[in-house]
Amino acid sequence: xxxxxxxxxxxxxxxxxxxxxxxxxxxxxxxxxxxxxxxxxxxxxxxxxxxxxxxxxxxxxxxxxxxxxxxxxxxxxxxxxxxxxxxxxxxxxxxxxxxxxxxxxxxxxxxxxxxxxxxxxxxxxxxxxxxxxxxxxxxxxxxxxxxxxxxxxxxxxxxxxxxxxxxxxxxxxxxxxxxxxxxxxxxxxxxxxxxxxxxxxxxxxxxxxxxxxxxxxxxxxxxxxxxxxxxxxxxxxxxxxxxxxxxxxxxxxxxxxxxxxxxxxxxxxxxxxxxxxxxxxxxxxxxxxxxxxxxxxxxxxxxxxxxxxxxxxxxxxxxxxxxxxxxxxxxxxxxxxxxxxxxxxxxxxxxxxxxxxxxxxxxxxxxxxxxxxxxxxxxxxxxxxxxxxxxxxxxxxxxxxxxxxxxxxxxxxxxxxxxxxxxxxxxxxxxxxxxxxxxxxxxxxxxxxxx
Length: 451
Known about the structure:
Blueprint: H1 10-16, E1 28-32, H2 39-46, H3 48-65, E2 69-73, H4 86-102, E3 107-112, H5 116-122, H6 125-131, E4 134-137, H7 172-181, E5 189-194, E6 196-202, E7 214-217, E8 229-231, H8 232-239, E9 245-249, E10 254-259, E11 262-265, H9 269-281, E12 286-290, H10 306-316, E13 335-337, H11 381-384, H12 407-410, E14 414-416, E15 418-420, H13 421-424, H14 429-440
Parallel strand pairs: 1-2, 1-15, 2-3, 3-4, 4-5, 5-12, 12-13, 13-14
Antiparallel strand pairs: 6-7, 6-8, 6-11, 9-10, 10-11
Helix pairs in contact: 1-14, 2-3, 3-4, 9-10
């Protein structure tokens, strides 16, 4: 049990009270995640009595606390400590959840793997499409230091270096096709967008292209502190120094940067817009973001949240999309699905800030000191709450929630946001709820939010 958590259910009640401000607001509670593993979910899914207990407990909690649904993030059935029977048992668990939830008009979603091997091992896609309201494909972490060579975190298309059947699957288009070809419903499929990059330490600084040998993960981020991973706000901070070289991969439709022996593959506003355009063209349900707080929220480039803004503008088909998005596309886009909590196991609260009009140089950014990946995000104290939140470690306070709030971004997009249960049980929820009320007062009544 995390000693920093305060299990006061009053926080949940205050959280769900945001629906009094915006009656269209929808809230889901999520459990699971990478750190949870698979073993305990495997045991539950295999036992009729444990499944019934799980379903009834989840239903009771959702109803008692006033949520509108439930998100299951089991990573992954029949893998990582699971059982070969998980694939069948997972469908049974989802079916029983759906049966119980549907009677009460509740939503059910799941976060799922992106690649064919895990899909075939873990999921009966046709059955999941029948019972789930949303299928959220985690189409990122497709390459990293585990490959022993440089590679993009989440390329849109394959490269000419992808010369094996497995490597040709490691891009967003192939991830979508993997689910669709196995029977997934287009209208329920949400592709994941990464607001972070994967970094590498080159074996030879002179060999700095795609597929170059590496000696180790990239250096830890200044604020995130994790080797081999950098948030977008850390990446754009590098770009302001003019010490890094930027390259656009015209095959994979994503950028990377390098300096000396450091190499980072990531998404920028251009690549995000191209991915959303693909989702629109394919008439998918939408996109999800992992995770919003990793964007450039300080906006010293002239725009806050350039990645989120690019996704929204392309989804909306607005003529206000930046001039680097050459083709403006109008068309149907069911919803923009956004994860706003980065990691329930680290109790990391994420907040969405305002975004002014686009600046024409979204890469020219500078970031003030902050800490998000392993710590609690602080809201603007003057606007949102009276006293500072206690952080897990001492870090600079953020000032990220501004007056021109979320409505500009979400005015015409149905948006679902999920918050893990552990966050709602924490001492930090009160300030998070106040922030949510502040934002929802400025949202169109037609917008549904799942925090």
